[in-house]
Amino acid sequence: MTNFLSLADVTDLDALIQSGRDAKANPFADQLLGKNKTIGLIFFNSSLRTRLSTQKAAQNLGLNVMIMNVGQDSWGLEMEEGVLMNGDKAEHVREAAAVIGRYCDIIGIRAFAELKDRDSDYREQVMQQFARYARVPIVNLESATRHPLQSLADCITIEEAKTVARPRVVLTWLPHFKPLPQAVANSFSEWMNARAASGHVEFVITHPKGYELAPEFAGNARVIYNREEAFAGADFIYGKNWSSYTNYGQVLTQDPSWAVTMDDMVRTNAGKFMHCLPVRRNLKVADAVLDGPQSLVIEQAANREWSAQAVLKEILKTY
Ligand code: AN0
Ligand code: CP
Fold this sequence. Notes:
Layout: H1 13-25, E1 38-43, H2 49-60, E2 64-69, E3 77-78, E4 91-92, H3 93-103, E5 106-110, H4 118-122, H5 125-134, E6 138-140, H6 148-161, E7 168-173, H7 183-197, E8 202-206, H8 215-218, E9 222-223, H9 227-231, E10 236-240, H10 262-265, E11 272-274, H11 287-291, H12 297-318
Parallel strand pairs: 1-2, 1-5, 3-4, 5-6, 7-8, 7-10, 8-9, 10-11
Helix pairs in contact: 1-6, 1-12, 2-12, 3-5, 6-7, 6-12
The protein binds N-acetyl-L-norvaline and phosphoric acid mono(formamide)ester (CP).
């Protein structure tokens, strides 16, 4: 593996999931693999889990870690080519990525969707520009359209917690007053469609009309608009808010009946609840769901360390 930008960079998903589970069982088995190498973690947006879990995973592999918040710690970065740089961005990604690439053997980047211009977000300009100019492997720490380290942790969590061979996994939209990116839902859908194609899960998406994901991410997933029907018999309920893709970046409804409560969970097959976090309690999910035995959210976040470790190990072995 050279870059980890999306599922397309994974050649053997089963093996990658197993590698994460092996790292969890034996975190220091490869502690010399990254010796005398450095990873740079570059954040254009806030983070708790991604920042700490990727740092921890890197340290477990013996890597040195440097972290930078763009715009706060560094200069603002211009991404467009051929522009007159007379605005508030003091440095171009051409130099910035090339320079960071000289200090680092791997670069992780977080850059959320701006949710203003769909084409611009879905072009993945920040990831593409870093991949183009850094000349070292790039790891996606959540880009405009994807969050693959999260999806890998989600796959690990489902494998650990499943009680049937082919669980029914339901991605449900949750209400929120703020427009959030589609990245987590897109990625989860992309990875679950792959798991469904290999017979590992049955995958269903439920959301209000107008929240359809981009066709390349929804793929062949079954969309059931009736939430009660979607939840029936679910083994995993995966909650996430996202803003509209079709009415790009808009909040079309805040209907509180889409928040997950214990009444919803009892309609499932003793289903487990998953959310990537951060989550706003009682706006998106009831306290009782997050605090009950059906919640996997803490284990899911813990598994971010092992998903990052599996990916970094794969890159270090290749590179
Ligand atoms: C981000 C999102 O929805 O993409 C990060 C999730 C991991 N969430 C928020 O901005 C609240
Ligand atoms: N789930 C996740 O990526 O969390 P952070 O935004 O805190 O990194």
